[in-house]
Request: fold
Amino acid sequence: MAHPADRFLQLGTLDALAGGASPIHRLDPRAKVLAVAGLVVAVASFGRFEVAALLPYALFPAVLLTLGAIPGGYILRRMLAALPFVLALGLLNPVLDRAPMLQLGPVTVSAGWLSLASILVRFALTVGTALLLVATTPFHQVCMALEKLGLPRVFALQLAFLYRYAFVLAAETARLVRARSLRAFGRRLSLGEFTGLAGGLLLRTWDRAQRIHTAMLARAFTGDFQPREPLAWNSRDTLFTLGWLGLFAALRWARLPQLLGQLAGGAQ
Amino acid sequence: MHMADALISPEIGGLLWLVSGAALVRSARAVAAEPGGARTPLTGVLGAFVFAVQMLNFAIPGTGSSGHLGGAMLLAVLLGPHAALLTMASVLVVQAFFFADGGLLALGCNIFNLGVLPVFLAYPLVYRPLAGAQGRRRGPAAFAAAVAGLALGAVAVALETRFSGISALPLRAFLMALVPIHLAIGLVEGAATLALLRFLAQARPELFHGPRTSWRAVTLVAVLALAAGGVLSWAASRNPDGLEWAVAKVAGTLPSAGGTVHAGLDRAQKGAALLPEYGFRDRGAAEPTRLETSLSGVVGGALTLALVAGAALLLKRRRSA
Reply:
């Protein structure tokens, strides 16, 4: 598996996508954050053998994807990168829980397979939606939205700074690693060498952070977000938030697939 | 190890969201109240450093494997516990959002296991007493605290998994598997932390100014953790079916200092609280009605997906038109 910072270097595409100008991009970030939180809570609240009732929630990521003009293949690849870990934990379920649970014609599905399917659907919904949120919203706007929604300001700023400088430091570390590997003839990094490299990196980082802080103070930084365009909530955002949250709640109570299935069964 | 969404129930996930949220709010207040204002630019860039330094994989002597620095104890020694918690939590949030490490529901657990425990238990209880007044034994103390922090995290992962009731693994077997591995990981983390602190003490001794520990925060976290653990184990031993009830009770009485977001999430979850059935043991034979309706459920599921795909196609066509 790639390491976090290597993976950070691959985030450039996501960051570029977030700068788009679709109707989804133009929504207030607070509306998107609230809708995503609503989806995660709704999906998490279902029983662990539930599969069919979760499927209608796919409408939300599908709308973000299409209206936001995000390439689906890219999101899919990023989701697949995180899949092995989920599978490793979920694959135990069919082994541990063999009680029959579902009859599909001649095939009996055990509870373990059902809960594995449920885990995979939940994974696809929550991870896909989280990725789509950051693909349609610049991360500093997500941080501003979180701060407006009650996250402590210091922590929201911390997130924004981390994201901004992770790209810088990941690139610097990649140069460091490449320079060493060119001179090391395949020898693995020893703890002593690690200390020198990481220590040097830490000292440069510390100094860089002090310079940044001083420069920001000189430009009237007061420990607050100072966006070029302040967030502006309008009726479109209200409609988006209430509409989706209402739909999620309705889907929690009324089981659309069950209804559709019964309708289809009745028509036969 | 990152706790994963697949392993935890909404109740445990929500409870740990509340505990971690309360700790974060407290730390944010403490950091904002520091003389000279918050050092957010410094801690933010150091959070980016934690990402970057994990690219540097060093060989572990005597084994074929390699390790990297986690960073919680290093940050606690350099920045003090409050700023260290904010920094670790920000790293975990970015990991959950962009890389799906752990997941959004498990984020509270992960901030607790990998942030709150090392920074508010291992740091004050192991590092501070061992380091000495002038920080003369800073390196060895950080080493011991790093090991303790990771072991605590492993125990927490096992307990959270057990009380979620999703995995059928027995607690003892899980503990026996997790704790030794994390002691080994802790030794590597400790060695890297020790080496880096030595390097920094030689290269830049003025970095260490010895921030004071907040004993009030320590007590708060310890009491919260003990209370949660105590109530849970009491309920589990007395009344195996009453776990949901116990969690709901604890979640209801905890101070919701997590601010409006957490309180809102909690309310939303309670509003939708048809507590789903857990536990492999409790489930009886599947009722016949369930088997009858399940086929229609599958057909309906397929229809739903077709509808979603159709809606997406329509939207796409309208956009390109």
Strands of chain B lie at 58-59, 66-67. Residues 210-215, 232-292 of chain B have pLDDT under 50 and may be disordered. DSSP finds eleven helices and two strands in chain B. The longest strand of chain B covers residues 58-59.
